[in-house]
Amino acid sequence: MATLSKLAGVVGGEVTGDKNLEITGVSGIDNALPGTITLVMGVQALPLAKKSGAAAFILPKDLEAPGLTGIKTANPRLAFAKLLGYFHPPRNPRPGIHSSAVIERGFHCGDSCYVGPLVFIGRNVTLGDRVIIHPGAVIEEETKIGSDTEIHPNVTVKNRTVIGSRVIIHAGAVIGSDGFGYVPDEGGHYKIPQVGYVKIEDEVEIGANVTIDRATTGRTLVRGGTKIDNLVQVAHNVEIGRDSLIIALSGIAGSTRLGDRVTLAGQAGLKDHITVGAGAVIAARGMVIGNVPSRAFFSNQPARPHAETMRIQAAAGKLPELLKTVKKMEKRLAQLENARFQEKEE
């Protein structure tokens, strides 16, 4: 429980109404509970807010909301996220190494780390301070993990991977598996040894069941601040720029380069050996087969500038009527040709 005044200090907002009102938690506006604070993003949500059971509201700074007690802020969604974290802080396990963990020689561990049950840690692994490794994770040899990083259950981190600080890797992810590379050989496929590694920089979050392949040679790189959703495939020698967003079920083929702040929407697919410029956005299910300029918005299959896609779709919507017109013209042309033929016969 906290006063509205204290919560305003947490989010850097301004109280409107009773600053001493006590708040018990955060809830959604559709199911707001008594005593909680909820989010109102605009004037269209005001009727719902007035009917809700919430005690207070997070409001845009410029929104007129007479009669509503709450906190006004320039970024209401950010304030909502911060208050969720305030009322639901992470529950980190007590530091220590569980007796069932298997740890090979050369292990170096920083202060206040946690290694859970049935974890395997290979030779010469190094952990920074306050690293959390949940049950069932596998950390292979020569891997380095920075401070305050959290590895969730059943993650596999292959050998020689480098992971930065404040990284979160969710359950079932595989970091550093072999890249997919073969050479045709007498009717078969000769496997190309994958001898590179994966580097994950600071403050990256990697979703559940993501796979990031090691490089054939050199490194596969995910730069700082990037967030990767569940079920994403990142192939060998890919480089993803800073603060990018890679949404669920997207796939990035080998040796492709993404600039900073690139967004790949759900199920986007990128061909190998291409470049996507900084700030570009690829729409859901966009299939990219060539380079994309910086700050461009591409969509469709194959992907092209979104404005061009919309023009094509608008034209496609007119095809039924165009077909009718063409059929009428064909019929009229046939009639004219028949009449001309008859005139020549006479």
What does this entry show, briefly?
The protein has 346 residues and is an alpha/beta fold. 19% of the residues lie in helices and 29% in strands.
Question: What brief labels describe this structure?
Answer:
single chain, 346 residues, alpha/beta, Udp-n-acetylmuramoylalanyl-d-glutamate--2,6- Diaminopimelate Ligase, Chain: A, domain 1, UDP N-Acetylglucosamine Acyltransferase, domain 1, 2 domains, 12-stranded mixed β-sheet, 10-stranded parallel β-sheet, 5 helices
Descriptive report:
By secondary structure, this protein is of the alpha/beta class. It has 5 helices and 40 strands. It folds into 2 domains: 86 residues, 3-Layer(aba) Sandwich (Udp-n-acetylmuramoylalanyl-d-glutamate--2,6- Diaminopimelate Ligase, Chain: A, domain 1), CATH 3.40.1390.10; 211 residues, UDP N-Acetylglucosamine Acyltransferase, domain 1. The strands form 6 sheets. It has a 12-stranded mixed sheet with strand order 8-11-14-17-20-25-28-31-34-37-39-40. A 10-stranded parallel sheet has the order 9-12-15-18-21-26-29-32-35-38, with no helix packed on it. A hairpin with a 2-residue loop joins strand 22 and strand 23. It is flat.
